[in-house]
Protein 1
Amino acid sequence: METRLLGQSDVQITPIIMGTWQAGKRWWVGIEDEDSVKAIRAAYESGITTIDTAEVYGDGHSERIVAEAVSDVRDRVVYASKVFANHLKYDLVLEACDRSLQNLKTDYIDLYQIHWPSGTWDTEIVPIEETMRALNRLKDEGKIRAIGVSNFSRSQLEEASQYGRIDSVQPPYSLLWRKAEKELQPYCMEHNISILAYSSLAQGLLTGKFGIDHQFAAEDNRSKNKLFYQKENYQRVQEALDKLRPIADRTGCSLAQLSLAWLIAQPQTHAIVGARNAEQVIANSQAANVRLSAEDLAEIDAISRPVNEPLDDNPVMWDF
């Protein structure tokens, strides 16, 4: 699989990135460690050499699963992890990074990201200057190679950039959730910042496997996703999927592959995709080979607009 430069760093990342939120198990149901290990290994063997995780995914469990899967090929994979909003004080950032290094069984993390802005999730407000000072120190020490942020608005990204080089931003972004295009994407294009889109398949909606009457268990985070539980949104999604299927058929790919191919064709954008098993990962990796014409991209864009335009301005996909 081709690689692209991460922002202005020297880190090379793949357009499809293996997401491992589900490997942490918390907020997911039916996840087995053995399947997660096999899925992550299958990602590497399919050419997806960039793996995204976080300390908060099962209190380090996801990071440990990543290490179990690919630590023997550490020099051929790119690790992206995140520090959570409750660890943004200077000393806590340093401690969190050391824990992640231990979990990942490595002495450096290629991309280290602020998972959520200070003050979210009822956390203490910490000046971004303080957090960035810690991240810059980690970079100077060689413990991290690049700095990124996640769930930041454009104004928050601009402020963080005053105190150090930010090479990536990680927003929710998919064909069904395009809020990143309004303010974040133009800024990233101007400043050469990579977009690492999470929930790039809208938590499975873009696979087309969830019918009109599908219900998630209460402990499944998708039961709180606005695209799923708000009936008017879900109806518009189903109508869009019906229009996308003929395009996937004529392109010779699945709905999911079509959606990922559209996403990685957008400026600065890479797609983080989670998977429960190796078969899903292998299918996701093939999206990098799908070639869409300008006409295809325009048609897909038009189909997705009626889903996106009625959504409110809150960039968060869930009502937790």
Protein 2
Amino acid sequence: MWIADNWKDYQVLDTSNGEKLEKWGDYILVRPDPQVIWNTPHNNPGWKKKNGHYHRSAKGGGEWEFFNLPNEWSINYEELTFNLKPFSFKHTGLFPEQATNWDWFSDIIQKANRPVKVLNLFAYTGGATLSAAKAGAAVTHVDASKGMVGWAKENAVSSGLGDAPIRWLVDDCVKFVEREIRRGNKYDGIIMDPPSYGRGPKGEIWKIEESIWPFIELTTQILSEDALFFLINSYTTGLQPAVLSYMMNTAIVKRFGGHVEAQEIGLPVKDSGLVLPCGASGRWTKE
């Protein structure tokens, strides 16, 4: 498992009965987590001192309950700053477990010693975009949500990357890649974090089980001949690491060579000393 264990401003304090207790900077949140199927005593004082609690509804969805939580606040990861706010379906605007992937590709970019072009698809609020830009890459950031792209731009400014070579695009990822193929544009690194289900700006439907394989095949057409890396993240239960590995070996390694690794990603839990699984990632490198 790849573990995001370099955080100073974020920590999973405890997990129990379908929920995780987290410290985000100065604030403590309780949020549901489907992986937490165990029930252990709530000994951590944070359970009683929480600033926000997302209650899942039996009918689907849920709602926040707040206790002295500001509308917005920020946390840092190394030299990056992320603006947070609680919004729909338990989210805060950041997936801290992805830091293990940020560290991985940032190291590759820095060691390349040449200009590197990176494409970040389904790019959300820009954690991967800012990490790649900070490492020295020119980044194209694509997401179907205008609000998320705006949030990512705010994070860039907060991180001192307002003038970094980042292209911000509100677009359907599939249609964008199809246009890039026609234009002949190529990228040295590709990152994708596809949702289980989503809609593009014009109502385009994305269902990951039906869409991910043809999309990987399509996206390999814009990898440069001397590409450095390809990263796929999945929070969909059916897409286990072995499935990501199989798809990437078939679509990428057969054409470009290189090496694929796929693992669960996770976050350390302070009270238990164990690791909370948080999805899976597949990584391809040329070396």
